[in-house]
């Protein structure tokens, strides 16, 4: 390839290696030879290579693919350390907001516990003190005076009508006395008359004096003049989301009231008991209470008094026309809104 006078001929033998084979010349060059050749003048214009797959001329680009397995090892941390790490990674405003939320949650839990456990326990520990064991007069529950209550001419009374007040329950004397005052205020402000019932029985089992004995009530139109109206505090209509349930003590105290009336001569010894719904279109006294009074021995079955006048019930002659009209107007002016 080179002339005899070519200066590259003078290169050391360790930089150039030449070999000959039959029919072709083969030149093996390494990097140092190529570098020296690139500096020599004139440059190499042609290189003949035969049967060599490992020869490379010029810059060599190597593509390297490297696969790295990035495995993250998660170590379980104790809860306090975990919470502390989270707290350090938050801002001061976020920490204050979180603290405020925790305080509010704690207050809510304390209030729930108090009103569901502690408060209920305190109510159960309240001593229910009343002026009398079971019979509470108007003076005892601080009733206002009414001077326009008429006296019935039908004595002793043969008919007792049971109703319910459709009002909140009360299980302590102080609460029942307040409920009596509320009922009194309602009827006086809306209907301008006294409490319509002769007696009211509280959920705690005490009997509260309404219009009392011998007074005409305003509870059942057509029968007010010749009956005794007794109402149970609460709403005893079954099927409501929440309704009152009559207790054995309430029923017992009602019987005690009736026995006292017979003893004092206010009630006929053969008196009869009915529900308000037996005499008029009404839900009173509610299915729960109505079912219980039907078990009483003095309950009047088979609509004994329905569509009868007071005179017919007491086997008296009908009053004159003017007296009948006056009685009708009295009943119209004094009618309650029982459900």
From TrEMBL:
The UniProt keywords, alphabetically, are: Immunity, Innate immunity, Membrane, Transmembrane, Transmembrane helix
Under the heading Gene3D superfamilies, the entry gives:
Peptidoglycan recognition protein-like
Q: Which gene encodes it?
A: LOC111360673
Q: What CDD domains does its record include?
A: PGRP (cd06583)
Q: Indicate what this protein is called per its UniProt record.
A: Peptidoglycan recognition protein-like isoform X1
* Location of the Peptidoglycan recognition protein family domain: 136-280
Report if keyword Oxidoreductase is assigned: no
Protein's GO biological process? innate immune response; peptidoglycan catabolic process
Question: Per its UniProt record, what Pfam families does this chain match?
Answer: Amidase_2
Q: Where are the transmembrane segments?
A: 96-117
Q: Does the keyword Ligase apply?
A: no
Member of which family? Answer: Belongs to the N-acetylmuramoyl-L-alanine amidase 2 family.
A single GO molecular-function term is: N-acetylmuramoyl-L-alanine amidase activity
